[in-house]
Design a protein that fits this description.
With 470 residues, the chain is of the alpha+beta class. The protein has twelve helices and 19 strands. Helix 4 packs parallel to helix 5 and helix 9 packs parallel to helix 10.
């Protein structure tokens, strides 16, 4: 009897210790990396690992029996990211990926081969799709029931890579030619019939996805959306970072996560579907307002200074009437150039003369814009910080702020106690509104402002003041 009791105690202990101590929920709010030499490995890859872990927690549930993952990224070269998406496909998740560049990396090609393996093919270019030769997530098709499959010296066993514990990571055959990889990217459209039985795909647009039909612009949006992740539903992440090495090591980046907001998630799902079609999107600015969050999707046609939504946001800033003291405006902008960059700079620096406390960090402006920003800072006294560093001594600035955000505390619109964050993938450049695919997020939350202000101060601490500040 004592042995039975002891066994039961041990068994119960095993059951209890094997259960998770807490249910997983993606951390909502801001996530920021700290690039080397100042950040350790965890800090460097904090954003990317946050996305990867959320992907690993997506699976079919009673509430969400057919889950989906939506990825839109300019680059992807990390094997853990590719493995996480492949693992989701194997769990029965529809994984839908749009990339702009970097499809030549091994991680991206492996992902393409796995997710596009069971998609229909058009080998002779006649526009008629042929049955796939592989099963879901690039698994082998079962042999015909009528007769065994014929032996062929060209049939090779699947190459399966494992981790240190012998766990299978990849499902690629490793024998796709570059031409086949590129051709497979053109097959998926907004029709589910082109996604294969697993409902998954990787595609690449010609130029921008929803922009001009002549291929102008590019697909520059960066969002990661999941119909569930752990105990959370409708998870949406918007970021300045891609799932690549540079997103961690070569720049300061930000990401904002929302959960349990179906309206926001459905906005991403609709736009992602339209992007997959790779046709001009009609040209109107698409906007989703969901509580304190306003998500915008670009491009928009006939964009001018008069209808620039970013300038409209800046025009709402009031330097008098704040109930929180002097209205504060903090900018951290990566790309800054051209006519649009000039009029946005003029607006930002003019706020100092109106009584606002203004400070600016730049990442990678054009040479002309860098000169102009210095001139404006000297003329107005606005503190201007250069975040660029040459870490290798080759006269190239490998490290810089890659963030694209504006922070406002004080009087904004008709609110005298506003806390505003304006972030996303879009730079302050010509074509940022009307050519490429971009997504931005405006957040009216004190908690978000506090997180972003802390990040802004951290970037400033590792930048050099080049003008202004009196």
């Amino acid at each position: 009897m004592r042995r039975i009791v002891l066994c039961l105690v041990l068994l119960c202990g095993l059951v209890l210790t094997s259960a998770p101590a807490f249910a997983y929920v993606p951390k909502e709010g801001g996530t920021f990396n700290v690039p080397p030499p100042w950040g350790d490995t965890e800090q460097t890859y904090r954003i990317i690992r946050h996305v990867e872990e959320a992907i690993r927690q997506v699976r079919p549930t009673a509430d969400d029996p057919t889950p989906i993952i939506l990825i839109s990224a300019y680059l992807m070269d990390r094997k853990p990211s590719s493995d996480a998406l492949i693992g989701a496909c194997r769990r029965g998740v529809s994984v839908r990926v749009i990339l702009d560049s970097g499809i030549g990396t091994k991680s991206a090609q492996n992902l393409i081969e796995v997710l596009n393996g069971d998609n229909p093919r058009d080998t002779d270019g006649d526009g008629v799709l042929e049955p796939p030769r592989r099963g879901p997530c690039n698994t082998p098709l079962p042999p015909p029931v009528e007769e065994p499959p014929p032996a062929s010296p060209r049939l090779m066993p699947d190459r399966v890579e494992t981790d240190a514990l012998g766990r299978e990571l990849e499902s690629s055959t490793g024998d796709w030619s570059q031409k086949r990889i590129v051709n497979s990217l053109a097959i998926p459209t907004d029709s589910q019939a082109t996604w294969g039985s697993d409902g998954s795909y990787v595609t690449q647009c010609v130029g921008s996805c929803r922009g001009n039909a002549n291929g102008a612009g590019n697909m520059h949006s960066k969002f990661y959306a999941m119909s569930n992740s752990g105990d959370a539903r409708w998870v949406s992440m918007i970021s300045s970072s891609n799932l690549n090495l540079g997103g961690g090591e070569y720049g300061w980046n930000d990401l904002y996560t929302t959960s349990n907001r179906q309206k926001t998630f459905e906005g991403y799902r609709q736009i992602h579907r339209e992007m997959t079609e790779d046709k001009p999107g009609g040209g109107e600015l698409r906007e989703v307002v969901d509580g304190p969050f306003t998500t915008r999707f670009f491009p928009m046609a006939k964009a001018t200074m008069a209808n620039d939504p970013v300038l409209d946001d800046l025009n709402k800033i009031r330097c008098r009437g704040s109930s929180l003291g002097r209205t504060q405006v903090h900018v951290s902008m990566f790309g800054w150039r051209g006519t649009r960059g000039t009029y946005l700079a003029d607006k930002v620096f003019s706020l100092k003369g109106q009584g606002c406390a203004v400070s600016v960090i730049f990442g990678a402006p054009s040479k002309q814009m860098a000169i102009y920003l210095r001139q404006k800072a000297r003329a107005t006294g606005v503190p201007l910080y250069n975040s660029r560093w040459d870490l290798t001594g080759d006269d190239r600035k490998e490290l810089r702020a890659h963030t694209k955000y504006v922070l406002v505390k004080g009087a904004y619109g008709d609110n005298n106690t506003a806390y505003e964050v304006m972030t996303g993938s879009a730079n302050w450049v010509d074509g940022g509104l009307d050519k490429g695919d971009e997504n931005t997020l405006n957040i009216s939350l004190r908690s978000a402002w506090t997180e972003y202000k802390r990040n802004w101060e951290q970037i400033r601490k590792h930048s050099v003041r080049v003008a202004g500040g009196r």
